[in-house]
Amino acid sequence: MGTIEPQLAEVIVPVDFPYNYRIGQYLEKYIKGLSEKKIMATKCPKCGGVFVPPRKVCGNCNVIMKEWVEVGPGGTVENYALGHVRVVNGLVEKTDPVEIFALVKLDGATALLASKLLGVKPKDVKKGMRVKTVFKEPPEDNFGDLIGFEST
Ligand SMILES: [Zn+2]
Q1: Is residue 61 in some structural domain?
Q2: How much distance in Å is there from the Cα of 3 to the middle of ligand 1?
Q3: CB atoms within 10 A of CB 50
Q4: Which residues pair with 106 in a beta bridge?
Q5: How far does residue 12's CA lie from ligand 1's centre (Å)?
Q6: pTM for the complete prediction?
Q7: Cβ contacts of residue 89 below 8 Å, gap of 6+?
């Protein structure tokens, strides 16, 4: 009683993972949600962790998650990284302008989702800033339907 469990945050780094990923049932549901501008996450019945992108097994508790919850589209920047280069087909390219990757805790989620921060200059990015999710229009039914985040 009276103690607070530390929350574990999970970080997914978006290094070309959409394109070589074997899509499972959970990720199919996630992608279908994106095409409807919804962000679907799975919730652990034991620790209450809410994971996005959704996964089947909670890594903290090793239990299968069957409960789905909608999170976002708003969120808070927990951390960020500036991308001066990117890797395209194994070659390093300079990015101009510099890209910002934000680790965002979507409202209702406990895990962090990494994506590009759009329309924000590197000098203006701050931890704790509020953002909202930007979706591709029209959707293409893949991970890219979540384009990134923008400041609100
Ligand atoms: Zn758990």
Answers
A1: yes
A2: 18
A3: 21
A4: 75
A5: 17
A6: 0.79
A7: none
Cα 58 to ligand 1 centroid, rounded to whole Å: 5
Closest by CA position to 12, among listed 86, 100, 112: 112
Is 3 a domain residue?
no
The candidate with the shortest Cα–Cα distance to 11, out of 63, 68, 66, 59, is: 59
Number of domains in the chain: 1
Q: How far is the CA of 50 from the centre of ligand 1 (A)?
A: 9
Question: Is residue 57 a part of any domain in this protein?
Answer: yes
Indicate which CATH number applies to the domain containing 40: 2.40.50.840
Range of the domain at 146: 17-151
CA of 53 to the centre of ligand 1 (A): 15
| CB contact at 8 A, 150 and 117 | yes
CA of 96 to the centre of ligand 1 (A): 40
Q: List residues, by chain if needed, whose CB lies under 5 Å from ion ligand 1.
A: 44, 46-47, 49, 58, 60-61
Q: Mean pLDDT of successive 10-residue segments in the chain (152 residues)?
A: 55 50 80 96 97 93 96 97 81 83 96 94 94 96 94 96
